[in-house]
Amino acid sequence: MADIRDLDQVRADIDAIDREIQALIQRRAGCAQRVAEIKLAEVLAAQEKGEPAAEVVFYRPEREAQILQQIIDRNEGPLVGSAVAHIFREVMSACLALERPLQVAYLGPEGTFTQAATLKHFGHAAICVPQNTIDGVFAQVESGECNYGVVPVENSTEGMVSHTLDNFMDSPLKISGEVEMRIVHHLLAAPGIGEESITRICAHQQALAQCRNWLDSHWPKVEREAVSSNGEAARLAATTPGVAAVAGDMAAELYQLEKLAEHIEDYPDNTTRFLVVGREEVPPSGRDKTSLIVSSRNKPGALFTLLDPFRRAGVSLTRIDTRPSRTEKWAYVFFIEFEGHMQDEAIRGIVADLEEQSILLKPLGSYPRAVL
């Protein structure tokens, strides 16, 4: 009987804590509504005075990154910091939706890892708008149809997504954030489909590349077909006899597919990085990165000249990649990513040096480093 009474008491404690948590969440939501009211009142006051009023900004990437990092830093367990931060991510998403739900374009269709990255960054209260191409994501944000967009930029085993880099050449959009996703691939098929019935395996070309060794070992004689996305591959597997798909958990759940094999990626730390693009510059968060495009004259030591300011300032590069120039034959532009914010004194000095040495310099934005 003592054990039962103890259990009943613990359950009563849990119920009491849940009520307290719920009340605190509602208090937080009320504060979020008050923030929206204050921002709108400031705009109306400016309009009444005939002063130019800036567009009301409800979502602040740097502020949310700071909050999530503080949650992780002060966490004492038993839940790990990232788990607690994920919970708060959803609370923040729901509170933000009370002010104004965010419309976020992403590389679709539904069930892709880009959709999963979008939900990880913005939470499930955001309105996710799938696009067929990376160009479409940029266009939706540039036109104002969507507040932000999410596109893949780099995979830890397959390298950079060149089409994303190319879009930045002509786009006025800024990078607002980054998302890192551990990529887990499964071999999926419709319920009741035996392995002997599989005649074709479909996936995005990057997914096929990330599972190449496993597929060579286990399905060497089955045709592989690259399609527009893993979500499309999952749709084909659900509707086309003989088709299996390489895709993730979200696609499996969405299209009600069964797993013929799990964790088939060749490298267990397979990770893809996504960029969040928007129309506004992001203030410093304290843990930032900056990306820019730069090109110099084609002469000996040109790359060294571009990189030396970073060395002299003690600023760490996190990524450098090249793309062909669209204006000059056999010339290249460099995509450089480094630690720090454009408002930092050291970064301003580096940019000043680059302006003197380059024939093209285009900052793509400073943004908080991925927290989750």
Helical content stands at 40-55%
User: Number of DSSP helices?
Assistant: 12
Instruction: Please identify the top-level CATH class of the domain at 283-368.
Output: Alpha Beta
The CATH superfamily of the domain at 283-368 bears the name ACT domain
User: Using only CA atoms, what is the Rg?
Assistant: 24 Å
The CATH architecture category of the domain at 283-368 equals 2-Layer Sandwich
Could you tell me the number of beta strands?
15
What is the general shape?
Answer: globular
Q: What share of the residues does DSSP label as strand, in percent?
A: 25-35%
Structural class: alpha/beta
Q: Quick check: average pLDDT? A: 92
Q: How far is it from the N-terminal to the C-terminal residue, by CA?
A: 44 Å
